[in-house]
Design goal:
The complex is a heterodimer. By secondary structure, chain A is an alpha+beta fold. In chain A, 51% of the residues lie in helices and 26% in strands. Chain A has twelve helices and 16 strands. By secondary structure, chain B is mostly helical. The chains are: A alpha+beta, B mainly alpha.
Chain lengths: 594, 171
């Protein structure tokens, strides 16, 4: 019976196949490492879309241990940078779960992990034809607008302070016109006085001729009489005009005073500035930094969420095979990372900080786990930095949280704002920073609080900005010793928004506005003082010139007046006309004796 | 080399005219039926295949059965799913299923899949009828068919080649 049982097995057939199985087992054992290496590299490249390089891989099948050395994952958006690199990765894999077609990393450690490191070779995949999207950040327009508003204000202030308003002032023009007008008038008066004098002399000469030969000259007497009358009238007019000179001077002074008043109003208008918007200034000064960090965080979360969605698709695809696979007991995810220690080096404020912590609860089906995924890191050394990331994708709406706290965070020196228009240099210091970010589905909520003592801001000298403005900005900024900022985060993952509440912008706006107004007032007053001095100088010159001219002309006209009066007296009282005998006797007696 | 290329034709002829006993033919067909019905992506199908090739049963008939019942199995999938679901959700067997599920090998056997379990149940159910029918067919038809086929020179040549192979005279 026993022989019969043995005979039913065709050993001739079975033995070579058992040998083949043994060879297969050996191949699996020794081919396992290259196969796993290929799977990790291929799977990683497929997930990230960039090169994944692995220095060495060793497995211990019986112990379920996997060790990776020199792992580098390139950044798909920057070909010469790595997303991360790790010197040493040890993973303890649950062999029993592996038999159930599940990969469960029960424990592990990643040491020498570094983020965003440089690569010597390009990390771009040769087969990759996906174009890298360099879309602008959703926050850029907001920051650009705030920056433009603030820098436009300062540009306008700088231009107005630099502008030469002298050409636009009325007082210098009026003073100059008055000078020209007076010059012409004085020349005209002098000319008229001289002409009058000459005509008087001529009349006197003609009267003398008539005296010598009264019979021949008698015919001209009426004509001479009319001429005398005309000259007398002109003399009177000229005298009136000269006597009216003080009144004219008064009018000119009034005109200049009115022009000065108008100039004062004009300058006040020109140097009147709206109050600089403190909120805008805060956005300009702190917005860039906040926006960059926030956008980075959102990009990382988006990237991670995209990868999670891919796993769900795979699971759905797996269910499309024949029949339904029934699981008994609690359902478990296909991939699960229970706990892994992390030792990480990351740059914070220009310093390489060493972090230690753990990553737990990462899986392909988070809804099957009791706890959400957690990443907790704490810095070693003298800077107490703590980071906690909780990613809860167990419910219908995924929820991610990030908490970062550092009471003594070193802040590197940096230039805030647009250094072509307005730039302010922030000196290095220490700050208390805490970040609480929460993402429910696509809705972003959060808060960043920032406090920095020994805060030092200095304006950057720029040829486009008025030098006086730079100086007074320096004085204004030196009064700010401490800054506190609270950033409220809102919006969505694709369009994050933030509002910075900080006294820094208000304080700066107040100081800058006051300083600019003070500078403008000083500039206006200086311009007005120059104008007033010019006006007074001109008035004095005019006054002196008028007074001299008046005396000169009145003295000259006095002689003419005497001559004309004497000649007029020849016609007798009431101007009845001249007779030759009278003329002869009177000319000989009074006038022509001279 | 020559026999390697002739092997499929030889085996087909042997299925009909071989000296295997009717029992060997019947068991070969039963194993082929089970292989054909059960979905192939699991260790159970591999084990059944190993049984077929590792046991002294009529292998060509088994392969024919596997081919035949693979087509039939697809038609029977809805029924197999219902049967498998009933078996898997039967409270009496639940502890057994749970212990099997927690064991290291069970996920590879696919016994927690409704169609695998249903098709296996159908295969068990059809084992005896199939064996009996195959045995009867072998008893009544094989001898007559063998005599009729042996009249053809080509079959005799193939038959000779098979005997030669069995005796170790491999061309």
């Amino acid at each position: 019976m026993g022989d019969r049982r043995l005979n039913i097995i065709r050993w001739k057939y079975v033995a070579p196949r058992l040998l083949l199985l043994a060879m297969l087992a050996g191949t699996v054992r020794f081919g396992c490492d290259p196969l796993l290496e290929w799977m990790i590299v291929t799977g990683g490249q497929s997930a990230t879309g960039a090169k994944v390089e692995l220095g060495e891989l060793t497995t211990w099948i019986k112990a379920g241990k996997l060790e990776l050395r020199d792992l580098q994952v390139a950044n798909p958006e920057s070909v010469l940078r790595n997303l991360f690199e790790a010197e040493h990765v040890v993973l303890q894999i649950d062999s029993f779960a592996l038999l159930h077609n599940r990969i469960v990393v029960s424990n592990g450690a990643i040491t020498g992990l570094q983020l965003d490191t440089l690569r010597s070779t390009s990390g771009e995949l040769a087969t990759s034809d996906a174009a890298i999207e360099e879309a602008p950040s959703a926050l850029d327009p907001l920051l650009a607008k705030a920056g433009d508003l603030a820098s436009d204000w300062l540009d306008s202030a700088s231009q107005r302070l630099d502008a030469d308003f002298v050409d636009q002032l009325q007082t210098p023009h009026i003073a100059e016109n008055l000078g020209k007008k007076w010059k012409a008038q004085s020349e005209s008066l002098r000319s008229r006085a001289e002409q009058l004098k000459q005509r008087g002399q001529k009349l006197a000469d003609e009267f003398r001729d008539i005296k010598k030969n009264p019979l021949r000259g008698v015919e001209r007497l009426p004509e001479l009489h009319a001429e005398l009358k005309s000259n007398q009238q002109e003399l009177v007019d000229l005298q009136k005009e000269i006597q009216g000179l003080p009144q004219q001077a008064k009018n000119d002074r009034q005109a200049l005073s009115t022009a000065r008043q108008q100039d004062e109003d004009f300058l006040r208008q020109q140097f009147e500035f709206d109050q600089l918007d403190g909120d805008n200034l805060t956005q300009v000064l702190l917005g860039q930094t906040v926006a960059e960090k926030l956008q980075n965080a959102c990009d990382w979360i988006t990237w991670a969420r995209k990868r999670t969605a891919g796993n769900s698709t795979k699971e759905l695809a797996a269910q499309r095979s024949r029949g339904t696979t029934v699981t008994f007991g609690r359902a478990r995810p296909q991939f699960e990372l229970q706990h892994i220690g992390v030792e990480l080096t990351a740059p914070i404020a220009g310093r390489e900080l060493q972090f230690v912590g753990y990553l737990s609860g990462v899986s392909s089906a988070p809804q099957l786990l009791e706890e959400p995924a957690r990443l907790e890191l704490a810095a070693l050394g003298d800077i107490p930095v703590k980071l906690l990331v909780v990613s809860d994708h167990r419910g219908r709406v995924p929820r991610d949280e990030l908490h970062f706290a550092c009471p003594t965070l070193p802040i590197g020196g940096q230039t805030l704002g647009n250094d072509e228009k307005l730039a302010i240099e922030l000196a290095p210091g220490m700050a208390d920073l805490s970040v609480d970010l929460q993402l429910d589905g696509e809705t972003l909520l959060g808060q960043i609080t920032f406090t920095q003592e020994k805060f030092q801001l200095t304006p950057v000298a720029n040829s486009r900005v008025n030098q006086h403005l730079t100086t007074i900005l320096g004085e204004a900024l030196s009064s700010i010793q401490e800054v506190q900022a609270e950033v409220k985060l809102a919006g969505t993952l694709n369009k994050p928004q933030f509002k910075i509440n900080s006294s820094l912008g208000e304080q700066l706006a107040q100081e800058i506005s006051t300083a600019v107004v003070k500078l403008a007032r000083a500039r206006g007053e200086a311009l007005l003082a120059d104008t007033t001095a010019t006006m007074n100088d001109q008035l004095e010159k005019l006054s002196t010139a008028r007074s001299n001219l008046q005396q000169e002309l009145l003295a000259n006209l006095g002689e003419n007046q005497k001559l004309f009066e004497d000649l007029a007296n020849l016609s007798g009282p009431g101007g009845r006309g001249l007779s030759v005998p009278q003329l002869s006797s009177r000319l000989g007696r009074e006038i022509l004796r001279k | 080399m020559f026999s390697f290329f002739l092997r499929p034709i030889r085996q087909f002829a042997q299925a009909l005219v071989a000296n295997d006993s009717p029992r060997q033919v019947a068991w070969g067909f039963v194993l082929g039926m089970a292989i054909g019905l059960v979905p192939k992506g699991n260790l159970l199908a591999v084990l059944l295949g190993m049984l077929l090739v590792g046991m002294r049963v009529n292998k060509p008939v088994g392969l024919m059965g596997a081919g035949l019942f693979t087509c039939l199995g697809l038609v029977l999938d809805p029924l197999a799913h219902r049967i498998g679901s009933s078996v898997l959700t039967w409270q009496v067997l639940r502890p057994l299923h749970e212990s099997l599920f927690e064991s290291a090998i069970s996920p590879w056997l696919g016994l927690n899949n409704t169609v695998v379990l249903g098709q296996l149940a159908i295969a068990f159910y059809l084992t005896y009828p199939t064996y009996w029918l195959a045995h009867q067919f072998s008893l009544r038809v094989q001898a007559r068919l063998s005599r009729w086929l042996m009249r053809f020179r080509a079959v005799r040549l193939l038959r000779g080649a098979e005997i030669g192979t069995q005796w170790g005279i491999d061309g």
